[in-house]
Amino acid sequence: GARRGDEQSFALLYRDIHPALLRYLRGMSVELAEDSASETWLEAARSLDTFEGPEPAFRGWLFAIARRKLIDRVRYEARRPSSAWDDVDEAGPLQRDIAEDVVELDTTERALALVRTLPPDHAEAVLLRIVGGLDYPEVAQVMDRTTGAVRVLVHRGLKRLARDLGQQTQQQGGVTP
Asked: Are the C-beta atoms of 123 and 27 separated by less than 8 Å?
């Protein structure tokens, strides 16, 4: 439906995939995630007529675009650093429970901060597999790696995260998960 120009179909895809896409991008770069996500959806809308396949393939296609857009944005920012807008009002048109948003954001940000401590290739593989919901062959295609290499990256990344999380919990006097 979205390929035929049905706005509701595109909106459904956006609502379904955007949160995971944004978490993936934030896991890779907090500062560049929003711009990269916007550029990803713009590119997807422009190129939608060239896509063929089922919804899972669309997710992989979209995450591949996001990865390229993030790489492009990193290169661009390295050449021309931009300043942050401190006075921008980020309140959206929909009002939600602020306390709920803060708790969700804090939990998400802590998890993504922990993922960012991994080597970049491990972090990207974990984010695409777990946050993005892509299967191993799709992650391999996005990262231009073999499926076996992706499995190893995800396994090592998750193992290190579990170890680091256990160490953090012990340091805080809690029980290891």
From this structure: yes
CA pair distance 18, 26, nearest whole angstrom: 12
Estimate to the nearest angstrom the gap between the alpha carbon of 36 and the chain centroid.
10
Dihedral sign of CA atoms 67, 72, 78, 84 in order: negative
| CA dist 156 → 114, 127, 151, 163 (Å) | 14, 13, 9, 11
Please say whether the dihedral angle defined by the alpha carbons of residues 115, 120, 121 and 124, taken in this order, is positive or negative: positive
Long-range Cβ pairs for the range 28-35 (8 Å, 24+): 28/70, 28/123, 28/124, 28/127, 29/70, 29/73, 29/74, 30/112, 31/77, 31/84, 32/70, 32/73, 32/74, 32/77, 33/70, 35/73
Measured from the Cβ of residue 33, the count of other Cβ atoms closer than 10 Å reads 21
* Amino acid code (one letter) for 153: L
Residues of the chain below pLDDT 50: 85-96, 98, 101-103, 176-177
Q: What is the largest CA-CA distance in the chain?
A: 56
- Note the pTM of the prediction, 2 decimals: 0.63
What letter does residue 142 receive in the DSSP assignment?
Answer: H
Amino acid at 103: V
CA 145 vs. chain centroid, Å, equals: 18
